[in-house]
Amino acid sequence: MEPELQVIFASVLLPFVAAIATPLAYRVLGERTGYGGAAVALACFGLVASQIGREGTVAVPWVPSLEIAMRFRVDGWALLFALLASGVGVLVFAYSAAYMHGEDNLARYYATLLAFMGSIIGVAFAADLAALFLFWELTSVCSFVLIGHNTEEDAARYSARMAMVVTVGGGLCLLAGFLLLAVVTDGAATFDLAWMLANDEAVRTALRKQGLFVPALVLIGVAAAAKSAQVPLHFWLPNAMVAPTPVSAFLHSATMVKVGVYVLGRLRPLFLGVEWTLLFATLGLATMTVGAALAVIASDIKRLLAYSTASHLGLMVAGFGFRSAAGAEAGAFHLLNHALFKAALFLVAGVVAHEVGTRHLPNLGGLWRDLPVTAAVTVVAALSMAGIPPFNGFYSKELLFEAAYEAGHSAGGLAWAYPVVAVLASVLTVVYSLRFLSIFFGDRPSGLPSVHRAPVALVGPPAVLAALAAVVSVTPETAVDVVVQAAADATAAEAHEMHAGLPSHLTPPVLMSAVTVVGGVAAYPYSDRLGRGIEAVVNVRDALRPTHLYDQSLTAVELGSSFTASRVHNGLLRTYVVWCLGTASGLSLLGYATAAVQWPAMSVFDVPLAMTLVLVVALVAGVAVSVAPSHVAGVLTLSILGFMVAIFYIMASAPDLALTQLVVETLVLLIFLLVLEELPAYYADVKRFVVARDAALSLLVGVTAFVTVLLAGRRADDEQTAVAGYYAEKAVPEGGGTNIVNVILVDFRGFDTLGEIFVVTIAAISVLVLITMRNRGERR
After folding, report:
1. How confident is the model at residue 615 (pLDDT cuts 50, 70, 90)?
2. Domain boundaries in the chain?
3. Do 283 and 264 form a contact (C-beta atoms < 8 A)?
């Protein structure tokens, strides 16, 4: 491991170590644990910042047999995302120390927040598909815990489950997409994402050659859409606003919801093409428009910010969707800009709710006299969100306009919808940004109580973010030179010199920006009328709302589970056997079919006549068992089948197996005959459905056993035969037995017996515990 890259491992591990130590630290520090978390985040920020300007990959073996390593890659894109996670984390932890005063379960809160930060940094640097998936899922788990922080509230539990279902469902799609990537690179670097990015053309060609390009693209697209709240999976994000405000600022504006965008930027070189643009440019602009429209009609300031977050995430996805260099620059630059102004606005919303006691937009206005510093922060952040020049959001939105215009100009036709939709969504963005700003500069409602000045601990973090946004606004080239240029180069197909600044002459993107600003400012006085129009469209079919569809889906799953449980868990042993054997056989046959195994060459003429006669007798005996008129006849016929199997073993030169078969068959025959006296002569009328089901199950199990034996005994010059040959060669001299059968029995049966011993031991301990508890209860 290169010494200068060891700090990357430290930056990922430090938050997890701190999370483990948090319960103990909370006993000592109490509510000041938030400042301890801020110190950890600051240390991570310093470690990550020390790598600016460096590139490289470092790996530690994890699962060598599967070519999986804990591999981290340092480049501009990873550094930008990790800097945001740790830098915003410093401010969120400091803000939490004041905002979460008096709350319950703070040890769990800070431990989860630290683990979440470590997961985000892990996602940023992960250069192995398995490691990336691991950290991706950790962010979902931590988000679930943080959204449901107030466990006693129904809304918190409902929203946490919703976020988990959507994001983890997307995670399964991501896993499937990663497995497709691993398939096409098998033998070169199965899970090595760094190798794939370095050989992007070869990977892309292999995907197309095997017909896996579009399936992998769609699976990864669904995963990114679920994580980054893209239409129609955007509905979980506004519901997640029940989480404490610091959680909203950290997870749902600066980091967690950007994980999907980050992965798109990371994988962009592998999939860039017509399909990529068609999927993500369209998806991003649709989300940008829908999110902006819903933000216009939102009456809760956190809900407004949530919908606006979905809209800006759509902007980033659309930027990365366009094939031009301006698209990659728009996505990378807006990732930074959005984190600065949106995290600040969420913290401002927390200040307003904390000091005023309400988040209802119609009940707020004229707060600049009471909260002057907060108002100044809001001016910078809201105008940045609106994309008003010269604030920082303007520069990245200008790049999106450039990419959208280039796509429309080069493709023509329907592609001209890209710049049109981008302008429309941006006009709505100006409207809802001015609505948020009105809580400080609008008319003061008559019923608004007196508002106390917010403490420095609450105002300080959003002020720092607003100051950084102002710095980027004044000197955008500085941000480009420090982090954005390198991030854009890492996500682009080829390097391109990036520039950001106020326009000096009229161009189509400048004209689009002018229309956006003028149109948004002109539409703001009519925002109420505009909102009623949007609500009329939204409420046309309530059944088509994503939240309603989600609820209906859960209801259908619950009904289906109840229906299935009543038929599977009905207390009948026959039913359990049917489900277990049917499922095992079906999955086995499906595995054989999907694995495309080779069938061995077969010829009935190669079987000796005597052995054929024995097998025919066994087959006739098997059929006779099912039609035997009595229990005694059925048992005797079954024994004929067993004895034929023993004779078959003798003909196959396996006398030891034949002897074992004869002994077992004789003992089974005697046991059956002994218990026949206790069996009733008549049970009940057998239903035709049950007979047909059991017959079908018998055939299914028989086919599975036949195919399994057939495939296990095939002779082919492949790896499986090589392994079997090696075992046969080494069994006697190294296994310590006299023949291969002895060694197999010892090796495999020994492990089975060891497992049975463990089970019996656990059962005995459980019985002992129950007896002990019963005796104690009786004494009480």
Report:
1. confident
2. 273-528, 603-683, 736-780
3. no
